[in-house]
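Agenda item 2: 4-O-methyl-alpha-D-glucopyranuronic acid complex prediction
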Amino acid sequence: MNNTSWTQLWLDYEKKRGKVSLDKDNIAVLIDGFTENNRIIKSIKNELLKAFKGLYGKEILFAEKESSIDESTYRIAITKSENMASEGYLIDAEDKGIVINASDENGALYGVFHVIRELMRGTKLREIKAECKPSNPLRMMNHWDNMDGSIERGYSGRSFFFENDNFYINDRTRDYARMMASTGINGIVINNVNVKDAATDLITDRYFFRVAELSELFADYGIKLYLSLNFASPIELGGLKVCDPLDEEVIKWWDEKFAEVYKNVPLLGGFLVKADSEGRPGPFTYGRNQADGANMLGKAIAPYGGIIIWRCFVYNCTQDWRDRKTDRARAGYDYFKGLDGEFLDNVILQIKNGPMDFQIREPVSPLIGGLTKTNQMLEVQIAQEYTGHQIDLCYLMPMFKEVLDFKTYCSKDKDTVADVVSGRTFGNKLAGMAAVINTGDDTNWTGNYLAAANLYGFGRLAYNTELSSEEIAREWVQMTFNLIEDETDKLVSMLLNSRGIYEKYTSPLGIGWMVTPHDHYGPSVDGYEYSRWGTYHRADHLGIGVDRTDKGTDYAHQYYPENAESYNDPDKCPEELLLFFHHIAYDRKLGDGRTLIQYIYDSHFEGEAEAEELYETWKGMEAHVEPEVFASVCHRFEMQIANAKEWRDQVNSYFYRKSGIPDEKGREIF
Ligand code: GCV
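Presented output:
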């Protein structure tokens, strides 16, 4: 099988031909209660045709009414039933076949993809049963694609939306929308949050036509298109002197701008905004706060039903933190907590999972649940910026599950992150999850073939936060490959272990960073682009870690008391976050009796060895994987092992030199 089939990722029906069988000869689909020429219903029909043709070489019939289906034909009914949850579905067996009940087209679409998924996994048609509704109302992908075709933190080629300030809208775009819908994604931001150059013009007639065209294509799959917005547009596009959110002229400019935008792109979902961060303009310039900025836009967009997604990744990247009290981790909470309750209903705050920046391990941001009167959604990153650039294997669902399961103590019950960001805790209608996406124009979409597990996984998890990392991994492996059962198990466990392995050979115990500045791949123990004021790990000859207790930056007390108390105390702090919260002596004993320095050495040796084991396990799958895929993944593993060795050696020798304490096991430290 040649590599082009990978354009379809987990929806490669042809690949399953002969591998899965159908228990019925004739299939008819009856659509009942939905308008036949609805755009999503049309997509459903196309998908069913494609799936049955691909999987079994079978044509299926679309019946107009019940009576036209004869006794020998198995029926798939797609039935509108009002009492179902929005975007949910119920699949059940009935005498003549199965029925997919849904109250809306998105629910019907997801129900159909559920059936297809199960068929691809070898489930018999008549045995497919399910009752599903989305955990989160908003389930979004955020592209950091620039209009010149580059992608900020992209590791899979160039943008498939843009090149040379032009749009691509083609079959690949449609495949992308199909794949996203198949996992339950219902919103996509197509351009980078750092809005510069031509991207500022996305809200002008230079691009209206193309944005509208793309929004229509997305709508065929129940997906709303969103844009990232340049807060300084009134200056850059409107020729105004300021973009002060309280300035009358600025307010009027945005009112008129959104009227124009929605006249031309009526299907637009709204805007994502990065303000006052890493050089982006924002309300701070005018002495205004984040609510002033977000609400000004929220008010202007409200007449069109649009929403403003305002990021909380607001911090001063030039701050001087030599005083040991100033702490970047504090920034989100410090800027936003005091504004809780001041944001409009159509504004939602998007909060990164941790207080820093997508490290392999961080505590959950204290803003999540810290805000109790404000719409909020979780932002994670499947683009592997700090987690191996899609060279190293790092399946991220275990990390996201930990985040979702974290108990915030923000309420008596329903107080996990999953509860808060789904809107269950505080009754928010606007709520959900977003991921910075890991795609590009590489044929296989994600550079590393195995990184597609994160693309698939995020959508599935955002739709159903109850799914386990393992269930998601298994679905993906079964749909994507044709492995024997034993190998499926092995690949699933490779995925499940990969995050822990990456953490071991890079930066364990919550210390984070120690990564090459700017590029963020490979070790540089003291390196960090904003390190003018010293290192992030604050290691000296006695110990390592950042004191974020009440004796240090007091970040620990941004949490509710139950968490604050444990984070503030090195004896109670979860070990995996010890160095995030505490400066610890190298000779301090950890839970299992090992000293901190010994833990650091062991972790790096183990992590590297386990990366080699991953590769060995993969090699055992050669017989059942397409040669090109096999070879490409082998190449990535070779690079991963080289990377792991470099991390192991640099980190271990750095801390050996700093501490002067040798490895108890006498291993060579370079
Ligand atoms: C889009 C980190 C990344 C930046 C990114 C930023 C953000 O700092 O390194 O590339 O900018 O996060 O999330 O806005």
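Discussion summary: The pocket of 4-O-methyl-alpha-D-glucopyranuronic acid is lined by residues 144, 152-153, 193-194, 274, 278, 313, 357 (CB under 6 Å).
Owner for follow-up: CH.
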